User: Fold this.
Amino acid sequence: MFYTIVCSLTYILLHLLFRIKVHAQDDLRNHDEPLIVCSNHSSMLDPFLVAITFKDKISYMGKKELFEKPILKFLLSNVGVFPVDRKGNPLNAIKNSIRILNENRTLGIFPEGTRVKEFDLNMAKAGTGMLVVKSKATVLPLYIEPGFKLFGPINIYYGERYNYNNMKEKFSSEDYVEISKDIMTRVYSLKNIFEGNSHGNH
Assistant:
């Protein structure tokens, strides 16, 4: 209930401040499956943009420092954000992620781990690939066009969901990195895919 209220208020606010346009190849719901929404990350608004455009509740990791203030901790905890220690032991965050996915819920991840302005495969971390494999989750790629300005357009591109469950039986750390790189490549290719389809329809 709290999540719905916060999302509704955020939806109204962001639509007053920006012209948000969603392009989607798939319906934006969780079909009772472990689902990871993977997005690029260039703005502090990105988690909110995902939350108001994806149709079901989505949980995120947030750096533990955000939870040090009681009011912020209350708000974050009630909208599905849980802490991760990015400089220390991330084990609890991984356990929370697996638990969410085992309950056939949706987890939002920024594979690059921090805000970036342009595509760089070297930013891919093994953690995303490992989580995808361990949870046997379906992946839904998402690209948020960066560089948006107040009252200007924000284009959000959702791709087709897919998974890596049938790749092989055993995975190495290098395999996890390659999966993360593949996810990032799919994310950053979405704008071109949509623009290509649009040109092909004329």
